[in-house]
Write a structure and sequence with these properties.
- This protein is mainly α.
- 48% of the residues lie in helices and 3% in strands.
- The protein has a two-stranded antiparallel ribbon with strand order 1-2.
- Helix 1 packs across helix 5 and helix 2 packs across helix 3.
- The termini are far apart.
Length: 261
């Protein structure tokens, strides 16, 4: 049998993870796979940890989950740094449909389509329509069982003050502020005197914190809504006039000064 030389060694764990995800999406149990492959369940588990796995066996496994080997490799490979950033035109296209924009963002962060379908109560037809729209916009490529590949950089940037930033401000951000209560535990505020250099360091820390949040959230992506709920995180740094507190009275709207909302 041919040895597994279809990918760099570092890609094999991602290939096996993708196979396991496809088993789950298909509802295929290891014992079912073992019976159809004519091997023991223990052998199947060994295959899916990379032991004894050959191209021939992987092709047979692909047949079980109804995907081509080339499709499996495309799904398994991580973000392509040669992919383009999100263009302003695609921002405008997404901004026409707030839920489509949110769905694409979550897909780009690694959330599985079937998990989002469950969380947001989408029918098979509704999910298919959303994915078809994203594919038509050339933002994703679809594979069997609603598996997708993002066609732009997963760490894409958006235009400051652009269509998607404006959309977020008018929808989710307004809702986030509306739900805010002073008694909530998960908020804090501080004031600091910062030079331009120090302010940039704070922005970089914010980005690192968001990456850490994404890494933590990755463990909960497949949990059902009764176990894990959606949360919004907002970071904002703006100039504030602390001196105006000398004239503040109950009923005033806030601290005045440059950049006050």
């Amino acid at each position: 049998m041919r040895p597994l030389e279809i990918a760099e060694q570092s890609e094999i764990p991602m290939i096996l993870k993708t196979v396991k995800n496809l088993f789950k999406a298909r509802g295929l149990l290891y014992q079912d796979a073992a019976q159809r492959l004519g091997v023991s369940e223990t052998t199947v588990k060994r295959y899916l940890t990379g032991h004894g796995l050959t191209v021939d066996i992987l092709e047979k496994i692909c047949a079980l989950i109804d995907v081509r080997l080339t499709d499996l490799l495309n799904m398994a490979r991580g973000p392509d740094r040669s992919l383009p950033d999100l263009s302003e035109q695609k921002e405008r296209d997404l901004a026409n449909d707030p839920f489509l924009a949110a769905l694409f963002y979550l897909l780009s962060q690694g959330y599985a389509a079937e998990a989002l379908q469950r969380d947001f109560g989408l029918s098979d037809e509704q999910l298919s329509d959303y994915l078809a729209t994203l594919e038509r916009l050339r933002l994703i490529e679809r594979f069997p069982f609603n598996r997708i590949k993002i066609k732009v950089r997963r760490d894409f940037t958006v235009v400051p003050g652009g269509p998607l930033m404006k959309l977020a401000r008018e929808t989710l951000l307004r809702d986030l502020i509306k739900r805010f209560e002073a008694a909530d535990r998960d908020w804090m505020v501080t004031y600091a005197k910062l030079s331009a250099t120090s302010a940039q360091k704070i922005r970089e820390l914010q980005q690192e914190f968001l990456k850490a949040v994404s890494a933590i959230a990755a463990h909960d992506q497949d949990l059902p809504p009764d176990v894990a709920g959606w949360n919004g995180l907002l970071f904002m740094m703006r100039p504030v006039d602390i001196g105006s507190l000398r004239n503040w009275r109950p009923g005033d709207q806030g601290v005045g000064g440059q950049g006050a909302a």
